[in-house]
């Protein structure tokens, strides 16, 4: 028995309106580095479906930066902690954990020798801290600001210099090492969002919410010029900048939904990339960027990573994904496509072989997606916007919408495309894309399932009981009441042959019932420690997989019922959905907004 993670289809960087996202890349320019939730993601720039994650922070991570050596990463979180950990091998060995400041860490910078770190943010007593990466000992003072510090940069060659910028509209220039205050620079009239030294170490640039770009001498801190005074500049605040490898050009990303490349010497705009979002007047705001080798990437507020092509002044490709927690998940019958729905209602399809994600605007809901199921020809989703959306598998943008009177708690579909939807006190029957019948029930429904043959419906309830009904045409008739579960029924799944029913509850217990006799056939699948969110059977019906709020996934055997395979901490915070790709491969989705695939070796 064993399990190996095959792939991570990573989430997008988490972006907040009005706040810069400090992206980074490794020294070789192969991987992009960003954060989302409690995790740090290392993602291949050329092949974004290749990714690694770091999950050892206990609260939300806000920024991560590579050491110039490439052997370590420093990541900071919302409580002011900075962790320094290794990038070599799979162990991700912790080198140092330090409480840098009293509040959120907004940015981190390494010196050129990979020995010293400066972390800045929203501190209580101070807004920045300079320390040694090995021991955590102080190596100077970061002072001179009166408000939150948003950004920091260190000159990569001696003599070292550090620059910080914050909400007090100022830059503070420090000499090092040890770092000591030198002077305050007050050219910006609004928040300073990012500062960076040029690659050759001769200059540094700053950008801010005032839409201004200033260039300064890296050794003295004296202003050289204002780059943004040129024609065709940004019309909104600027959140990010990156230098080209030869230090002759700068890439900027702005709230005006554009990215621009500037010629430093000529003080002119070379390229303008219009990255506006067609469906929103603000999701196209550009809040972060990196420039490594031939990869110019600008981050949209929506989380889209736009790969920019200077030869066309357009994005050559866009890498997309979820930013918020995945709450629903399903796999197509041919196992080539995954569908996921998120907390904010966004629905995306994923290609199983490449990990490419595509947003499905027509299939998306106006609020949280409660559940997604597949019946072969259709994906069916239910959302908190009181609708059920039915998508054609062959054309996922071909969607029909059915309004439901009440909040859908759960949805299920049979092979003949009969759909059942459970609301608080009703069960609705949908056939041919229309609601054809409904049945009032005298208990509070929490989940529902219909067998593949379309002849039986199981309704899970808040009272820890499962009500099994026969379905004849559109009419439901009570058959059995199953009452062995220990908590509210949270997930139901019929065996492919339609006779057995797996029922998971809020206590983490799974019972398997014979729906023909009403008897319990398996009562010891009880190793989850919190609510069971999803149960699915393998195509043969020999195995079942379950995912829970406890972050664990279990694979169960119907033949050897005492045997199990455990995937501990498969996703941070919670598992939202699970499914089989084949008998030895499963896919999972969770609150970390990622989709993962796993290779199993059964007992």
TrEMBL record:
Coiled coil location: none
WD repeats: 54-85, 185-226, 231-272, 319-360, 482-523, 528-559, 568-603
Record-linked Pfam families: ANAPC4_WD40, WD40
Signal peptide: none
Alphabetical UniProt keywords: Repeat, WD repeat
Domain of life: Eukaryota
Gene Ontology cellular component annotations, sorted alphabetically: cortical actin cytoskeleton
GO biological process: actin filament depolymerization
Chain ranges of the Anaphase-promoting complex subunit 4-like WD40 domain: 454-538
Any one Gene Ontology molecular-function term assigned to this protein's record: actin filament binding
Assigned protein family: Belongs to the WD repeat AIP1 family.
Protein name: WD40 repeat-like protein
The organism's taxonomic lineage, starting at the top: Eukaryota, Fungi, Fungi incertae sedis, Mucoromycota, Mortierellomycotina
Gene it is expressed from: AIP1
